[in-house]
Amino acid sequence: FDESMHGACLQNLPVVFCMDRGGLSGDDGPTHHGLFDISYLRGVPNLIHMVPKDEDELADMMYTAMLHEGPSAIRYPRGIGPGVAVKAQPVALEIGKAEVIHDGSDVAIFGLGAMLPEAERLAEMLRLEGFSAAVINPRFAKPVDRECVAKYGARCGLVITLEDHVLAGGFGSAVLETLNGLEAQVPVVRIGWPDEFIEHGKVESLRAKYGLTAEAALEKARPHLSHMMEQVLAKHL
After folding, report:
1. Which of 143, 188, 214, 232 makes the best surface tag, with the fewest CB within 10 Å?
2. Is pLDDT of 121 > 60?
3. 126: part of which helix (H) or strand (E)?
4. Which pairs count as long-range contacts for 116-125, CB under 8 Å and 24+ apart, including other chains?
5. Confidence class of residue 134 from pLDDT cuts 50, 70 and 90?
């Protein structure tokens, strides 16, 4: 932390920090889970923090980092990616710009990095229940896409964030801070790891145990969804 802050960020040097094992590292156990990097780097000035959804976007982020004139960090999980083909020439990303995977008007789901597939599963569950769900690939843990958050915070009745990181100081916290700065009143449901050291185990089993699944997110969102349905029914009475 001292080296990243004083050695790179204070001097605004073009250093790239590759956060290997970003997220739960499963079989490696609590000494190797990468669940804290967003929170301890997000407050450092000059740094940008990127989180790819797949192999191709990781290449784009490496290319973006090499072109960026200041310090940057990229977090990616242990193991193989989803199997997406990597294009011959990477593309530089616009700093702080999220990618809208699916548009929607009732619920906005921000699925950071490896949690994007769960975000898409959650969106499908919501659609089956009659809700229009937007799915957003944030790409950047810092800076957060303020314009995107403002747009969906104003349009939707609920915002849900999913991250493979502790909730304390993580991406969901950044979204909450952004909405607070915008004085938006939309409720936010955050899905992430609790404030404790997570044991050794298979990723899927630990996600199920600690509620980092689309099913758990849906249940946590239930009270807000019920309230939204009540408001819709009231308008038609």
Report:
1. 232
2. yes
3. helix 116-128
4. 116/53, 116/162, 117/82, 118/162, 118/191, 118/212, 118/213, 118/214, 118/217, 119/160, 119/162, 119/214, 121/214, 122/160, 122/162, 122/214, 122/217, 122/218, 125/214, 125/215, 125/218
5. very high
Which amino acid would we find at residue 68?
H
Extract the tokens encoding 123. 């969106």
Q: Is the pLDDT of residue 227 over 90?
A: no
**How confident is the model over 173-187, as pLDDT tens digits?**
999 999 999 999 999
Per-residue DSSP letters for 80-101? ----PPPPSS--PPPTT--EEE
**Cβ-based neighbour number of residue 13 at 10 Å:** 12
Cα gap 102→132, rounded to integer Å: 10
3-state secondary structure of 133: strand
Q: Is omega for the bond preceding 143 within 30 degrees of 0, making it cis? A: yes
Burial 166-175 (b: 16+ CB within 10 A, else e): bbebbbbbbb
- Per-residue DSSP letters for 7-43? IIITTT---EEEEETBB--GGG-TTT-B-SHHHHHTT
Residue 83 neighbours by CB under 8 Å, 6+ apart: 55
Task: Decide: helix, strand or coil at residue 49.
Answer: strand
CB count within 10 Å of CB 150 equals: 15
